[in-house]
Write a structure and sequence with these properties.
The protein is an alpha/beta fold. The longest helix is centred in the middle third of the chain and has 19 residues, at about 210-230. The strands form 3 sheets. Strands 4, 14, 15, 16, 17, 18, 19, 20 and 21 form a 9-stranded mixed beta sheet that branches. Helices cover about 30% and strands about 25% of the residues. The chain binds ligand LLP.
Length: about 425
């Protein structure tokens, strides 16, 4: 299934066949809008690329955990990669079975481990020896064995930005390469642990295959070494990280090339593969729609001030991330201007784009910030007491609000001025 999720139809940028102007009128701006068909198409493209291998595709919930997104994941037969009790509960509530859930993260608590064991999850990706020992205890208290893989740190540089690279020796993630065999030998002897596999995740927004190749080749070697140590390795979890093209002309490795690389290295091992893609599945299935409030002519720059801000989409402020920005109303031709596209939040970093050439836009016009489906709503906050913005799902010619805008009363409801005894 190929689907053009966002395209101009009758002069208006549309999600599938619904005009974003129609949604804006009904829901108000700003809002996130996702395409059901596009999320499914990306899941299926991943599944298709590994056809015959039957991998577990454990969608990384942190990229976009809305229950509506997760219910699509569930209905496509995929699983989930979770990193907190909250994500575990979300995945289960959306109908993702426990045995398709992997639990990652460096700081799992005992309560999280206990809940995950009760849900019979597929595996824990263990990131340290102390965590291993705590998990062993928690499992034994329940008379169970916890299925594990160690997340190993291959000391490979990768990732679109320093803040999202995870596979270097100095990063907090994974167990040190040199310690891995010793840890596996120890884990294999623990009565509350069942060693199942090995896990690696080197970073996010990786656009070339070389870092994957370097890391996966090391993992393949380690599988051989562990087996010769008598440790059974039946699964290999290769994490997420495959990037998407954010800029107009950026070149990104395709899922087909990625799959070819993986299969060349992994097929000889005879293991079940697990993947944890997040961004690949949802990034280009979502846009952030905002309205222009002012066109402010500054001394050195012109500013297009939107009603969306860094609290709604943090990626540009946090990682200098590039997102295409396009007008919702299609312009045949018009004056182009160079704008800094900013929001109303009181921070200089509240800027979506710098000196971007755009059609001249009057107050009231709508713009779409593209490729905002991953780590958009998920990273949003209510900074400046701005309500979390609604999320909308489109399927065909229908749309539904999948997260409504809270009222101010709801935003304040969990807070209270203290009442002191004296
Ligand atoms: N597995 C693990 C263990 C992870 O830490 C991550 C992402 C993923 C899978 C999914 O990676 P993906 O396929 O989405 O690249 N907020 C940042 C990205 C942070 C990624 C954190 N970990 C951004 O907006 O670029």
């Amino acid at each position: 299934m190929t689907i053009e999720a966002f395209a101009y139809r009758a002069g208006s940028l549309s999600a599938e066949t619904v005009s974003l102007e129609t949604i804006a009128t009904e829901v108000g701006t700003p809002f996130y809008c996702y395409s059901d068909g596009r999320i499914r198409a990306r899941l299926r493209a991943f599944q298709e690329a590994f056809r015959g291998a039957d991998p577990l595709i454990a969608y990384s919930v942190k990229a976009n955990g809305n229950l509506a997104v997760l219910s699509i994941v569930a209905s496509e037969g995929a699983g989930a990669d979770v990193v907190s009790l909250g994500e575990l509960l979300r995945a289960r509530r959306a109908g993702i079975p426990g045995d398709r859930i992997v639990f990652s993260g460096v700081g799992k608590t005992q309560a999280e481990m206990a809940a995950a064991i009760d849900e019979n999850i597929h595996q824990f990706n263990v990131e340290s020896e102390p965590e291993l020992l705590v998990l062993n205890d928690v499992a034994l208290q329940k008379g169970r064995r916890a299925p594990i893989a160690f997340r190993v740190n291959p000391d490979v540089a990768a990732g679109g930005h320093e803040k999202i690279s995870t596979g270097k020796a100095e990063d907090k993630f994974g167990v040190a390469w040199a310690a891995a065999r010793g840890l596996y030998a120890r884990a294999h002897r623990l009565p509350g642990i069942a060693v199942k596999g090995i896990d690696v995740h080197i970073g996010s927004q990786i656009t070339a295959l070389e870092p994957f190749e370097a890391a996966f080749a090391k993992v393949a070697d380690l599988v051989g070494a562990l087996r010769s140590d008598g440790v059974p390795i039946e699964r290999v979890d290769l994490g997420g990280g495959l990037g998407v093209p954010y800029a107009e002309a950026s070149a990104v490795a395709s899922i087909e090339d990625y799959a070819r690389l993986v299969r060349r290295l992994a097929d000889p091992l005879g293991v079940r593969l697990i993947f944890e893609p997040g961004r690949f599945i949802v990034a280009d299935a979502g846009v952030l729609v905002a309205r222009v409030i002012y066109d402010k002519r500054g001394e050195a720059r012109d500013f297009l001030i939107l009603d969306a801000a860094m609290n709604d989409l943090l990626r540009p402020a946090l990682y200098d991330a590039y997102h295409r920005i396009v007008p919702v109303r299609q312009f045949a031709q018009s004056t182009m201007r160079s704008y800094d596209v900013v929001g109303p939040v009181c921070e200089t970093s509240d800027r979506f784009a710098r000196q971007r050439d755009l059609h001249e836009l009057a107050p009231g016009e709508l713009v779409a910030i593209m490729d905002a489906g991953a780590y958009g709503a998920a990273l949003a906050s209510q900074y400046n007491t701005r309500p979390l913005i609604p999320e909308v799902m489109v399927r065909g010619d229908e749309f539904r609000v999948i997260r409504r805008r809270p009222t101010y009363e709801e935003m304040f409801a969990a807070e209270a001025a203290p009442v002191w005894r004296k």
